[in-house]
Amino acid sequence: MKKYLTYDEYLKTRFGTKVMKLPLDAGFTCPNIDGRCGFGGCTYCSKQPLRYRGLPIAVQAEEAKRILRKKWVREGREEKYIPYFQVFSNTYAPVELLRELYSQALAVPGTVGLSIATRADCLPPEVVELLFEFSEKTYLTVELGLQTVHEDTARLIHRGHSFEDFLRGYEALKGLNVCIHLINGLPGESRERMLTSAQTVASLRPHEIKLHMLYLEKGCELTRQYEEKPFPLLSLEEYCEIVVSQLEFFHPDTVVGRVTGDGSAEALVAPLWTLKKFSVLNGIDKEFEKRQTWQGRRFGEN
């Protein structure tokens, strides 16, 4: 038994079987890329679409199912899915287009929910209203990339919005299931600063949290900066220790959507240990056991 509430376990309890996410690329862009608030995107962003960008939502979903079936599905097991609008800012479009695309995803056979990744500054009132509309139809999660609560780091990585902007967006979604993303290992961030980000986010009581290690891929501005002037990257051991310390702050009911990232083996520059997903997961489990601790042990501490 894990010492934290995994997304997989939560979904099995909620839906009675394993549920798989289907990554989708709806062809959207981002206000931090197209010039509304910046150009070039966040410095860690590879700005790479999924390989099936441009295909209809139903076709993308079937392709994602085909890939997942090789790994997870066993003969006779019921298939359930959550289509995941993953690439760039998936509320950054006219509301009628969003309604049409979300509806297409909801019509995918076996769908029990929707997950929509976006930014906190891409939530105008009419889009928020649409999200509430879909939350009445299905298990809806809105994923917000925050990455850090520290303004100087956000400026350094060209995040394009402030923590105050994030809080306004988060408040607008009050009553919905929200997943918040944090990145560990950003340039200049100490262990203490990473823990502060986690403790601050934990106090918001999000439905879900995703923790990522910063990984550098070819083509990213941050990779160019790293190759020009290397900065420290966390070791596997450091990362596992930090993640466990962060999860201690989150309420036991907060779903842990992810504790490690999935970089491309072909594009990854550093750190190479991030490719060894099971080593990361095992390292986190061992750190929990070593310290005899659990998710939520420090929830509510000031």
Distance N to C terminus: 29 Å
The fraction of residues in strands falls at 15-25%
Sheet with the most strands, sense and barrel status: 7 strands, parallel
**Broad shape:** globular
* Unreliable residue stretches: none
DSSP helix count? 10
Q: What is the CATH-assigned architecture?
A: Alpha-Beta Barrel
CATH class: Alpha Beta
Query: How many distinct domains?
Result: 1
Report the count of strand segments: 9
Model description:
The protein has ten helices and nine strands. The chain is an alpha/beta fold and 302 residues long. Strand 5 (177-184), helix 7 and strand 6 (208-213) form a beta-alpha-beta unit. The strands form two sheets. It has a seven-stranded parallel sheet, sandwiched between helices. A two-stranded antiparallel sheet has the order 7-9. Helix 3 packs parallel to helix 4 (125-135), helix 7 (191-202) packs parallel to helix 9 and helix 9 (236-247) packs across helix 10. The mean pLDDT is 93.
